[in-house]
Amino acid sequence: MGRLSGVRAVSVRAVPGSYREAWASVTRNRNLRFAQLSSLSAWTGEFLFLSAMTVYAFDQDGAAGVGLVGFLRVLPATVALPWLGALADRVSRRQLLVVSCALRAATAAGAAAAVASPAAVYALLTLSTVCHAAYRPVLAALFPTLCTTPEELAGVNAVRAILDGVAALVGPLAAAALLAAYDPAVAFAAVAVLAAVAGLLAARLRFESPRPAADPEPAGRPGVVADVVDGLRELRRRPRALDVIVLGGAQCLVRGALTVLAVVVAVEVTDLGRPGVGVLWAAFGVGGFVAAMASIGAAGSARLGTLFGAGIAMWGVPIVLIGLATGSPVAVGAFAVIGAANAIVDVTGFTLLQRLVPDRTLARVLALTEAVFSLALALGSLVIPAVLSGLGDTGALVAVGCVLPLAVGLRWTALRAIDADIAVRKDRIVLLRRVGMFRLLPVPVIEGLAMRLGRSSVAAGTDVFAQGDPGDLFYVVGSGRVAVLDDGREIRRLGPGDSFGEIALLRSAPRTATVRAVEDTELATLAGPDFVAAVTGFAATSATAEQVVGGYLTEDGQRQAEPPPDAPGSPDLRGR
User: Fold this and answer.
1) What are the distances in angstroms from CA 440 to CA 4, 9, 18, 535, 544?
2) Is the predicted pLDDT of residue 358 greater than 90, yes or no?
3) With 0-12 CB in 10 A as exposed, 13-18 as middle and 19+ as buried, what is 233?
4) Through-space distance between the first and last CA atoms of the chain, rounded to whole angstroms
5) Cβ 69 vs Cβ 197: under 8 Å
6) Using 50, 70 and 90 to split pLDDT, how confident is the model at 188?
7) Which CATH superfamily is domain 1-211 in?
8) How big is the chain by its Cα radius of gyration, in Å?
9) Do 179 and 55 contact (CB within 8 A), yes or no?
10) Range list for CATH 1.20.1250.20 in the chain
C-alpha cells in the first residue's frame, strides 16, 4: 500500500521497535508526518462534531433528537462505505482524502450557517458523516504505501492509536468550551476549520502508488458495483483476513453492548452513580493510551495474530469480572483493562488487514470492515436491553463477557496460523531487503514479492543458468555460494544476500554470464515479470537499477568494469 527518493530515503533506517523509534519514523518521514497530523485534525473535528451535534439535538428535540442523530450517523455512512471503498481502489487515495475533507468542511460550515433550521442541520449532519466515513479506511489503506517495512507500519498504527486518544480527549473538551461560550454554530464552524486543515495536510502527501503490471487499464475496468462484489470475494480468497474481521466484529458487538452496560454498572451494580459513567470511560481512555504507547514496543513482533486474539479475549474477561466481583474499584480497573485491550486490538487488527489484503483491494476491504463494525456496534446496543431483561445485571455481564474469550478459543488455531504466515514473510522480507534495489519499495510491494518468492536448491557444481540462456528468473542467494563465469573465467563469487540475474530481465536479453553453484546452495527466486514490475514501477528504484545495470554494459554489449559492491548508494546488483 514507491516513493520519491528524496522523500523516502530518510525512513530506511527507521524500523520501530520502541516508543522513541516509532515517533522518529513518523517525524523524519515527511509523508507519515503529514498523514498523522491530518488524521489528528480530522478526528479531533469528528469528536468535536459528535459532542456538539448531541447537545444541539437534545436542545432542539430532547432524547428523541439524540436518538435521531445516532441513527443518522450510523446507517447512511454504513451503506455508503462499501461504495466509497471501491472508489478508493479506483482513484488516487490522496485525492479522495482531500475531497472528503473538503466536503466535510463545506457541510459542517453549512450546518453552522443553518443552525436555526434543525431539519437542514440534520440533513447536513448526514452528508457530513458520509463524507467523513471514507477518511479512516482510505487513510489506513494509504499507510502501507508510505512505509518501507512491516515493523514501521505497525509502529505507525500504534502512533495513530495514540493520536486518536488525544483527539478523543481534545475534541469533546473543545466542544464543551465552545458550547459554554458560544452557540453550536461556532462549534460547527470549528469542525469545518479542522476538516479543511486535515485536507490541506493530506494534499501535501507526495508518493508513488504501486500498480502491478498485470492491472488492467482504467478504461477496461469493471464498474463500481463489480468492485464492491470483488471486495466481498477478496474476503473469501483471504480467509485469514476474514478471521480478523469476524473477531473484530464480535468485539464491536460487545462494545455496543458495553455502551449500555456502563450505565448499568455505574448506577445499578456499583455505588459510582450517574457521574460514574464518565469515570468508567475515563478509565477506559487511560488504559487505551497506556496500551497504545506499550504496543509500539511490540511493533516488530511476528505474533500479531495471537496478540490480536489476546486483545479480543481481554475485552471480555474484565466484563465477566465486573459481574462476579462487584465493587467500584473493580469496575474502574476493569474498564482500564478493557481500554488497554481496545488499543491492542486496534493496532494489531489494522496492521494485520493491511498486510493480509493486497493493495489493489485494500481500501474496499477496509471500508467493508468499517461497515461491519458500525453495524455490530449498533446491534450490540440494540440487543443488550433484552439480555438485561432476561438475565439480570450480573447474568448479562457474565454472558456478554464470555462471548469474546469463547470466540478467540474457537479461532485460536487460525490465529496461530496467521503468526506462522507472518513469520515466513518476515524471513523472506529480510532476505529481499538485502537486495539494494528493493530497499525503498513500499510495504505492499515487498509483501507481494515475499508471497511470490520461490525456492530452488542447486547442488555443488551445477549451473543455475548458462551464458546465452534466456532470462526468466531473478535470484537471491539464501545460503551457499555461486560463481559468476564469463566465457569460462570466474569473475566473482556471490554469497548469502547477494543477487543475480537482473540484466537479462531488465534488458530483455540473453544471460550475459554463467552462474554455477560452488557448494550446495539455496536460492530464492522471483519470476521475471514480478521483478521487473517491482523495480521499474517506482522512480527511485528504476533510476538506480538503470544506473547500475548501465554501468555493466557498453553500447556494443561489452561489459565494463563494475563499481565496488559496497560503494555508497550502490544496490547489490552484482550478478548477471
Assistant:
1) 9, 7, 22, 10, 11
2) no
3) exposed
4) 31
5) no
6) very high
7) MFS general substrate transporter like domains (1.20.1250.20)
8) 27
9) yes
10) 1-211, 222-410
Q: What is the pLDDT of residue 25?
A: 63
- The bridge status of strand 499-500 relative to strand 473-479 is antiparallel
> In terms of DSSP bridges, do strands 521-527 and 473-479 run parallel, antiparallel, or are they unpaired?
antiparallel
Find out whether 576 and 503 touch, Cβ atoms under 8 Å.
yes
Strands 489-494, 514-517: pairing kind: unpaired
C-alpha cell at 404: 469474546
Local structure of 478: helix, strand or coil = strand
CATH fold, domain 437-552, is Jelly Rolls (2.60.120)
User: Would you state the pLDDT for residue 312?
Assistant: 95
Lateral strand order in the sheet of 454-458: 454-458, 521-527, 473-479, 499-500
As a CATH number, domain 222-410 is 1.20.1250.20
Angle at 248 between CA 288 and CA 411, to 5 degrees: 115
The model carries a pTM of 0.73
Q: Which long-range contacts (CB under 8 A, 24 or more apart) does 540-544 make?
A: 540/2, 540/3, 540/4, 540/5, 540/8, 540/440, 541/2, 541/437, 541/438, 541/440, 541/441, 543/5, 544/436, 544/437, 544/569, 544/571
Cell of 238: 483471504
Cell triple for 170 = 481534545
Distance CA 530, CA 571 (A): 18
